[in-house]
């Protein structure tokens, strides 16, 4: 895979929850969980299943930092 996005984090798929058109995919990235909303078609094409490996790719124009 070649992609320009720099924020690529390998993880393990915890859960895939399909809705009418969109799925929520929960990925464990070393103790933290990232959730992505993608189409059901993408889930099927990529063969995403709980226990499988995936790379979370984060592409954003802004990165914010907050403190309490």
Give a brief description:
By secondary structure, the protein is mostly beta strands. It is built from 1 helix and 4 strands, in the order βββαβ.
Named CATH topology: OB fold (Dihydrolipoamide Acetyltransferase, E2P)
Sequence stretches where pLDDT stays below 50 over 5 or more residues? none
Beta-strand percentage? over 45%
What is the count of structural domains? 1
Rg for CA atoms: 13 Å
> Strand arrangement, largest sheet?
3-2-1-4
- Succession of helices and strands: EEEHE
Large-scale geometry: globular
CATH architecture: Beta Barrel
Can you offer a commentary on this structure?
The protein has 68 residues and is mainly β. The protein has a single domain, classed as Beta Barrel (OB fold (Dihydrolipoamide Acetyltransferase, E2P)), CATH 2.40.50. Helix content is 10%, strand content 47%. It has a 4-stranded antiparallel beta sheet with strand order 3-2-1-4. It is globular and about 35 Å long. The relative contact order is 0.31.
């Amino acid at each position: 895979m070649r992609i320009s996005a720099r924020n690529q984090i390998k993880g393990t798929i915890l859960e895939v929850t399909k809705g009418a058109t969109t799925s929520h995919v929960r990925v464990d990235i070393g103790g933290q969980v990232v959730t992505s909303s993608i189409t059901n078609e993408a889930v099927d094409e990529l063969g995403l299943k709980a226990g499988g490996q995936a790379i979370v790719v984060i592409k954003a124009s802004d990165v914010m930092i907050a403190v309490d």
